[in-house]
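agent: user wants the structure for IS66 family insertion sequence element accessory protein TnpB from Lactobacillus porci. delegating to structure tool.
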Amino acid sequence: MINLAELGRVFIVCGNTDMRRGIDSLAYIVKKNFNLDLFSGCVFLFCGSRRDRFKC
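agent: tool returned. relaying tokens verbatim.
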């Protein structure tokens, strides 16, 4: 189990994300929609339509 408190800043991306997307597509979403630095040490959690699986 991952302790989220030790990770620093954790962003939860709301809405349905196509879980078939790769890391490049997810990075593009973060950069375009949130204007955040991908290499700042933050963690981004993406939720699929089933809402029982996440991609980090």
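agent: one observation worth passing along. Helices lie at 23-34.
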